[in-house]
Each structure stands twice: as C-alpha cells, then as structure tokens.
Amino acid sequence: MHQPLHVKAEDNLRFIRETMERAGSFTAVSGWGEMGIGATALVAAWLSSVAASPDRWLALWLGEAAIAVAIAMATTTWKVRDHRVPLVSGPARKFALSFVPPMIAGALLTIVLVTRGEHALLPAVWMLLYGAAVVSAGTFSVRIVPVMGACFMICGAIALVVPDIRNVMMAVAFGGLHLVFGAAIARRHGG
Amino acid sequence: MAKPSPAGGRRPRGEREPLREIKGKSEAGQVPDLDKVIHERMRLAIVSALAATDTLGFNELKSLIGATDGNLSVHARKLEDAGYIVTTKRFEGRVPKTEFKLTAAGRRALERYVDHMEALIRAVRER
Questions:
Q1: Shortest CA distance from A85: residue in chain B
Q2: For the segment A64-110, what is each residue's pLDDT rounded down to a tens digit?
Q3: ipTM summary value
Q4: A135 in Cβ contact with A153 (< 8 Å)
Q5: Per-residue pLDDT tens for B46-100?
Q6: Is the Cβ pair A27, B54 closer than 8 Å?
Q7: How confident is the model at residue B12 (pLDDT cuts 50, 70, 90)?
Q8: At what angle do helices B58-65 and B69-81 cross, to 10 degrees?
Q9: How far apart are CA A133 and CA A100, in angstroms?
Q10: How many whole angstroms separate alpha carbon A161 and alpha carbon A50?
Q11: A6 CB-near residues (< 8 Å, 6+ apart)
C-alpha cells in the first residue's frame, strides 16, 4: 500500500533531520576547544610545578578545570550551531550521560583524598577517570575521541606507578594530549 | 503510471498524486524535479550525514548510517559520479583510509530536495 505523497515527504524530512542530528553530535567535540584546553592546561602545569603548597597546587588545577569546562561548553555550542544541528539531541544526551558518571566519581574521590591529605594520588585519579569518561562517551563520537581517552588512562596508570613524575604526566596528558588530538579533530572533523 | 485526475475534480482519498501535478500549487509555484540520485534512502543518509559535518571516514559513516561495506561503497560511488561527494583515499602508516566529503553541488542538491519535500507538504495543506 502506497503512503500519500505528503506523508512520505514528511517522513523524508524527519529522516534528514535525524541523520544530521546524529552526524552533528557525532563530531560535536570541538577540536579548537580541545586545543584551547590543552594550552591553558600547559600554563596550569607550569604554575602548579612551582606551587608553594599542596593546597595552592589543588586550587590551580581546580581553576583550570573550571576554565576547561567553560571552553568546552562554548566551543561545542559554536561548533554545533555552525553545522546547524541541535545541541540537545539523542546522541548528545548519550554522550553527556556517559561522560558525567566518571566525572562525579572523580569529584567524590578528590574530596576524600584531599580530606586525607593524599594530594599525590590526585593526578593519577584525575587522568584515569577523565580518560574513562572520554572513552565511554567517545563511543558516541568519532573514533579519535575514545583513543584520546585511552591515552589519558595510560598517562594516569603511569602516574599511579611512578608518582614522582605526576606533574610531568599532568602536562603531557591535559596539555599535550588535548593539543595533539584537538588539532587532529579540528583538521579532520570540521573544527 | 498514475491516471490524470479529472479536470477540476478531486482525487479519491488515498490515491497517489503524481509529482508533476503538484507543480504550480506551491506558494512559489515552483517545485524542482525530484533528484533521484539522493531520493534513495541510503544515499539520502550519506548526503545528510556529510551535510552536518566536514569529513567522515568510511567506518564512521558506515556505523552512523547503519550500512554494510558493500552498500556504502556502491551508493558512495553513485554520489561521487553525480559530483555530490568526493572520496579521498590515503594511507595512515600501512592502513588505507577512505574519507568522504560533501561538495557544494551535493549541498545544493540536498537543499533542493528539502525544498521539494516542503513544497509537497505545503501543496497538500493548501488544498
């Protein structure tokens, strides 16, 4: 049985919109944003390496985290608007729902470790849980995103085994990995 | 082939109306010809996905639109022949990589197709 033409036309338009939403969210991670986060993280890594106390070190990185969130939100919004796809769509929700739980776990562990004075463990915990968040959320994005998450987890594992180089690993991971992968995403996936 | 409707008469409910008869009924009175290259679902999906992003790799596009390797290759070739997409093949180390990108002609074709669908819907609502 044939559908009336206008019903078929509506179905085709819905199909186009949904495909564009999926594709847009697929690459909504902004490469330029990642590079911005990498650059500010390198500054934070340098400042924290000369921090006078663990509390000052912590304050610097928490400040950097707030800046990174602001950069990520702004550049993702610009990117999806530029590609004329909605920011809140099915895949974007899945991305957020996969990303947030490891970050909440990271926040809770940060509170516990700081309360117990275990600052030295923080870099490894942050890199491992941020990496886990990026890997799981990255299943709804282009393949390069979960690869970046896996690299963060490797850096976190190294910092866990060799705590003395934790500041170097923070610079390598939050600075270097964001810059390298951000450049690749910007070049290959529309900004 | 559908029969033409009687002059001034209404078509029975549910009967298909040929595209040509819609022509002239839309607001602008202009409905472009249906582009059969992107009317096919898989090709429409490829063009729509590439319209929302800059470049997509073979596997990324395949998983995004739920195609098989063979299906994607065949339909991508047809779109490439029509000048709607460009395919780039390169090597990353020893691994071959295929990437697809929408051309300006492809973007215009999708816009025309969307206009066409909107004109069809408008024509029915105006009756």
A1: B52
A2: 999 999 998 899 888 877 765 555 555 667 778 889 999 999 999 99
A3: 0.72
A4: yes
A5: 999 998 877 888 988 998 888 999 999 999 999 999 999 999 998 878 888 899 9
A6: yes
A7: very low
A8: 110
A9: 7
A10: 23
A11: B120, B121, B123, B124, B125
Q: Quick one: how far is CA B64 from the chain centroid?
A: 17
Quote the minimal CA–CA distance from B49 to chain A in Å. 5
pLDDT at A160 exceeding the cut of 90: yes
Q: Dihedral of CA B113/B114/B117/B118: which sign?
A: negative
Query: How far, in Å, CA of A173 to CA of A41, rounded?
Result: 9
Which residues are B91's β-sheet partners?
B96
**Lowest mean pLDDT: which of A132-141, B19-28, B68-77?**
B19-28
| Pick from B38, B15, B23, B30: nearest CA to B84 | B38
Distance of CA B123 to the CA centre of its chain: 20
Dihedral, CA atoms, B9, B11, B16, B17, nearest 10 degrees? 20
DSSP string, A93-161: HHHHHHHHHHHHHHHHHHHHHHHTT-GGGHHHHHHHHHHHHHHHHHTTS-THHHHHHHHHHHHHHHHHH
- Burial per residue of A94-110, b for 16 or more beta-carbon CB atoms within 10 angstroms, e otherwise: bbeebbeebbeebeebb
CB proximity under 8 Å: B 102-121 to A: 110, 113-114, 116-118, 120-121
